[in-house]
Amino acid sequence: MENIFYGPVFSRRFGYSLGIDLTPYKICSFDCIYCQLGKTSTKTTDVKRYVDIDFENFKSELKRIIDGTSRIDYITFAGSGEPTLSSDLNDLIRITKQLTSIPVIVLTNGSGFSSDSIIDAVSISDAVKISIDASDEAAFKKINKPHRSITFASFVEGIKKFFSKYEGKILIEIMLLKGLNDSDESFENFKTLFDEIPFFYDKVKKIHLNNPFRLPESYGLLKSSDKQTEKFMSLLPGKTEIIKISKGHGNAIKHIHEEDLLAKILDIINRRPSSAKDISQSLNININESIKMLTYLINEDKVYYDIKGKEKLFFLKR
Ligand code: SF4
């Protein structure tokens, strides 16, 4: 069985989270312009088994990791792409919940919720985090670049259906991008959209506003102004937070394992600018873990990235 576990990695939102990656790099129904994983190589809506997972092995490996790890706050089904495309998702959440009381969260782009079987697949999770970056078709196409079969209307219908059925905690994440989804008009559209979603204000526990930070100029993307970001804070008063990766986040890199990884990553980049995928392959770690470490190093001002050809490469700051 491929190693589908990574971490635990620290995030301010979820604490120490053990990641489970069900889609190989990079299979997704979207191709978001800000995606940390780089360009989508297979844009699809096919729900199937992308990774060969033996359920007994999964169970024993998960138990071994949980027993050997001092702190795990969440078990996170994410992926090097969209996890709800995996036909094993429901079985694996079920096995996980039978094994442990650690809460299970699924991170999704929400594009599959027009399908009842995908809603059923996540129904037993404790929480779902859905990215909603657009409040109209034009922004949806520009920002998320969805699979051709997904329209903004079908996306919204799916989200509404999901909210009607799901009983767990729901978190929303919006990537705010200057000129793309942060205008006053866009704000009003988001408000209208959220008003139309059943039980939105009861079921949503937090809205996370994400601002891309330290984007290279070649991305052509800019973070939203403080004024507009502040405006979006009123989308759900008291429950909307700006996600900032502060210097304090560095305190989270505590494990020797992580310090060791950081040193190895710096060494690789020092020898040759590398992509997150190169690094994950060289060090035999999951790509999400390499991205987590690279994000930390960017924040520490030790690394920067840029697009070269079709690749997102990470460079050492000298
Ligand atoms: S949905 Fe997530 S994984 Fe897919 S392209 Fe967007 S950011 Fe990347």
Architecture overview:
The protein has 318 residues and is an alpha/beta fold. The chain has 2 domains: 5-244, TIM Barrel, CATH 3.20.20.70; 251-318, Orthogonal Bundle (Arc Repressor Mutant, subunit A). The chain is 36% helix and 20% strand. It is built from 11 helices and 12 strands. Helix 1 packs across helix 2 (89-99), helix 9 crosses helix 11 and helix 10 crosses helix 11 (287-299). Bound molecules: iron/sulfur cluster. Residues 28, 30-32, 35, 37, 40, 81-82, 109 line the site of iron/sulfur cluster. The site of iron/sulfur cluster (SF4) has 10 residues, from loops.
SSE blueprint:
Blueprint: E1 5-11, E2 15-21, E3 27-28, E4 42-43, H1 55-67, E5 74-78, H2 89-99, E6 104-108, H3 116-122, E7 127-131, H4 137-144, H5 152-165, E8 169-175, H6 184-196, H7 200-203, E9 204-210, H8 226-232, E10 240-243, H9 256-271, H10 276-283, H11 287-299, E11 303-308, E12 311-316
Parallel strand pairs: 2-5, 3-4, 5-6, 6-7, 7-8, 8-9, 9-10
Antiparallel strand pairs: 1-2, 11-12
Bound molecules: iron/sulfur cluster.
Residues 28, 30-32, 35, 37, 40, 81-82, 109 line the site of iron/sulfur cluster.
